[in-house]
Amino acid sequence: MIVRKPLALSLIALAIGAPGLASASSLYHPADGEVGFTTHPDHFQSAISRADALQAVTVARKDGTLAIIARGGALPVKAMSPSKTREQVQQEYLSMSAAEKQRMKEMYSGS
To answer: Using CA atoms, how far apart are residues 95 and 8, in angstroms rounded to an integer?
Structure first.
């Protein structure tokens, strides 16, 4: 019992202090008060150069995504792989086993 209390207190102190140590190199730091954080631009380390950032802005301006982002819109998601035709999807369903069909029914019906 005597050993448990100091061990527990030290573990609690570590748990409370660990997030503060992890955020020492971030742009924002927690602070007391209404705002809840302070900004420290000198702590921010960018991974890209200024030229790369300007090039990305130029590309975004040309393809129209900059205008969408500036207005708070969501960017359309590009397909990662070719989509299937209706016939391919139907053929896949018809070739499924009864157990697979039951699993799909349970997964998408919410039961």
So the answer is: 58
The amino acid that residue 77 corresponds to is V
CA-CA distances (angstroms) from residue 66 to 49, 55, 63, 71?
19, 12, 8, 9
DSSP 38-96: EE-GGG---SS-HHHHHHHHHHHHHHTHHHHHHTTPPPPPPPSSPPPPHHHHHHHHHTS
Per-residue pLDDT of 18-40, as tens digits, reads 665 555 667 777 777 777 888 87
pLDDT digits (tens, 9 = 90+) for 80-94: 777 888 999 999 999
- For residues 85 and 49, give the distance between their C-alpha atoms in angstroms, rounded to a whole number: 43
The contacts of residue 110 (CB under 8 Å, 6+ apart) are none
**What count of Cα atoms within 13 Å lies in the side-chain half-sphere of residue 66?**
11
